[in-house]
Write a structure and sequence with these properties.
With 629 residues, the protein is an alpha+beta fold. Among the domains are: 107 residues; 46 residues, no CATH class; 80 residues, Orthogonal Bundle (Muramoyl-pentapeptide Carboxypeptidase, domain 1); 120 residues, Alpha-Beta Complex (endopeptidase fold (from Nostoc punctiforme)), CATH 3.90.1720.10. It contains 20 helices and twelve strands. A hairpin with a 4-residue loop joins strand 10 and strand 11. The protein is globular and about 105 Å long. About 19% of the residues have low confidence.
């Protein structure tokens, strides 16, 4: 019996080795035949090297197939004679197949997994492979979908900058194409199908802002390559030479950092923000030693990596309302705070008694003041906010069109009680109907008619002497002329507003004006950090247009727009309407019509009107906001 088992074991070992050798040979032949394509237009396929190797592979597979058939013909007899050994072999074979399938599945999912990782909350602005827009562009600007030859970029005269950083090694999501080492991969001023991949990679590494890539090698792409070359210690030429291309598409490519010695619009914006937060003494000049020290102090206070360089994490923290300032903040006290509280009270922002302590009431008053005066609404009393607050140009507090909150709802409730507004329009949003009701109330009560609820209007509105409308409001908007003073209607529970109500009277006119303002800037140059009137980046363009349309809106980056609570939010790209602000990963735009938008496009180098009904924009959509109601 022992002899039989020993002999069976020897035979089983030989059979196993033969099978292992066979599969090893077959696998090696298959792997040598297939390789990851460097020439594929798509990014997720494996292709044959060439027809001849494919034919050779066919011969190997055929020969191997014959061996397999021969083996399986003998398998029944062997199975009877060597049951135990065959059972073990089958277990090994099945296990090998399972492991092989698992490894293959993992390999085939690598690209998809990398894309999903880039869209995680830690890297929300990164882009995935983006098919080119196949939708027709706007009839008003048919050429807006490409970066046009002849466009100029301010980076020609100022150092091109970006204000983002990736602290992890980026994973390439595009295939590197074979290159001729003797000439450039693409030439500036030309269209080339490799440029969308190059632009996308530059966006991932934060040398370009997020946008739908084009195939045109323009000045913006050229200057982004210069910055990439300088950061990665290559010869700074702006050319897409083989060395630059190969490093750009590799895991060794370094992401961009804004650091000491840099200058440009984005450095100006960052330094201004550091000044407002109290970390530098002046907002003038480039990235000097004082700014580096301020950046380090800010990073330490906000639990960031302290290196004195401004990357993506630091930039986003700078504009986060929860960041820790060096300016006056919650819990601080002193005579200076008392001085600013008195000023806030005089302007109608602070409703509590000034006490010299920076509490939540003071913070909310400061935030409202910042909103009304087109400042970054973070609730911190920094130098810029203090200067504006104490100036003669400071705008007093008044509820006005597009605002949202419980104070707006209280005003609407009172307007309903006085017959100026219908109950169904009590929705906490200062809409066109609310504005019209306020204007009629002001007219009937002998007040200045401006449609805003300031301190004087508020006092009269909630007094016993408030003049009621002579007749209840109708579907057309507001009630009749003035009636008797005092008294009120019974207070019903206001009905829930429609989830997507039609614009109130006056909203359509405001939207038309908003779009006209945006279109008036078509063709203006893209400049990172630009806020108008003739150069813009995406968030600066939206900020400028909203304020020109009569809405007091503080500056917000695309990152800050994601958490905006002032306007009605929509999370479905199919429900975006004309006049909405559209928020994408790393980008904002203005909807100008059905599936068209106006935006400051870096890949185009200017303000354009184009379609957003493409895979790229669908994939990067976050939400939109209804500014006019």
């Amino acid at each position: 019996m022992k002899k039989l088992l020993s002999e069976a074991a020897i035979r089983a070992k030989r059979i196993f080795l033969a099978i292992a050798s066979f599969f090893s040979t077959l696998w090696a032949k298959v792997l040598s035949t297939f390789r990851k394509s460097k020439n594929a237009e798509a990014k997720t396929t494996y292709s044959l090297n060439n027809k001849s190797s494919a034919g050779g592979a066919g011969k190997h597979v055929s020969a191997a197939g014959g061996k397999v058939l021969s083996f399986f013909k003998r398998l029944p007899a062997l199975a009877v004679k060597y049951r135990l050994a065959v059972s073990c072999i089958m277990v090994v074979i099945i296990g090998a197949i399972v492991i092989g399938v698992a490894l293959g599945g993992k390999s085939s999912k690598t690209f998809k997994g990398d894309q999903q990782a880039l869209h995680s909350s830690d890297n929300p602005a990164a882009v995935t492979q983006s098919p080119q827009n196949t939708e027709p562009g706007s009839t008003d600007d048919p050429g807006a979908a490409t970066e046009q030859p002849g466009e100029t970029d301010p980076a020609e005269t100022t150092t091109p900058q970006t204000t983002h950083n990736i602290y992890i090694t980026p994973v390439p999501i595009v295939s590197m194409r074979p290159v001729d080492e003797t000439k450039d991969v693409a030439k500036a001023g030309e269209h080339n199908d490799v440029i969308p991949d190059v632009q996308e990679r530059l966006m991932i590494l934060w040398y370009m802002d997020q946008d739908e890539p084009t195939d045109y090698f323009g000045n913006i792409t050229k200057n982004a390559l210069r910055t990439f070359q300088r950061r990665n210690e290559l010869e700074v030429t702006g050319r897409l030479d083989p060395a630059t291309y190969e490093l750009l598409m590799s895991n060794d490519a370094k992401a961009y950092l804004c650091m000491i010695g840099d200058s440009g619009q984005d450095v100006v914006a960052v330094k201004q923000r550091l000044y407002e937060l109290g970390y530098v003494d002046t907002e003038d000049g480039g990235f000097d030693e004082a700014m580096e020290a301020g950046v380090k102090e800010f990073q330490a206070a906000n639990n960031l990596s302290v290196d004195g360089k401004v990357g993506r994490n630091t930039k986003e923290a700078l504009y986060n309302p929860e960041c820790v300032p060096k300016a006056f903040n919650i819990g601080d006290s002193g005579n200076n705070i008392l001085l600013y509280q008195n000023r806030l009270q005089k302007l109608g922002y602070l409703t509590t008694e000034p006490d010299g302590i920076y509490g939540t009431d003071t913070q909310m008053a400061v935030r409202r003041f910042q909103e009304q005066n087109s400042l970054i609404a973070d609730g911190y009393l920094g130098p810029i906010t203090r200067d504006t607050l104490m100036s003669d140009d400071a705008v007093g507090n008044a509820l006005s069109y597009s605002m949202h909150g419980s104070d707006v709802k209280n005003v609407q409730q009172r307007l309903y009680e006085l017959n100026y507004l219908r109950a169904k329009n009590i929705n906490s949003y200062y809409t066109s109907l609310t504005e019209k009701a306020v204007k009629l109330f002001q007219k009937n009560n002998g007040l200045t008619v401006d449609g805003k609820v300031g301190r004087h209007t508020m006092n009269v509105l909630f007094s016993d002497d408030a003049v009621r409308a002579s007749s209840p409001v109708t579907d057309g908007g507001t009630g009749g002329g003035g009636g008797g003073g005092g008294g009120s209607n019974p207070t019903p529970k206001p009905s829930d507003p429609d989830p997507d109500p039609d614009p109130g009277e006056g909203a359509s006119e405001r939207i038309d004006r908003f779009i006209r303002i945006a279109r008036s800037k078509l063709g203006c140059r893209y400049v990172r950090g630009g806020k108008g009137p003739n150069v813009f980046d995406c968030s600066g363009f939206v900020y400028w247009c909203i304020n020109k349309a009569g809405i007091s809106q503080g500056y917000m980056t695309s990152y800050m727009w994601r958490s905006c609570t002032r306007y009605q939010r929509n999370n479905n790209i199919n429900n975006v309407k004309r006049g909405d602000v559209i928020v994408y990963y790393g980008h904002v735009a203005i909807c100008s019509g059905k599936w068209t938008m106006i935006d400051a496009s870096q890949s185009n180098g200017r303000i354009v009107e184009r379609s957003f009904n493409s895979n790229y924009w669908h994939r990067n959509f976050i939400c939109s906001f209804r500014i006019f109601r």
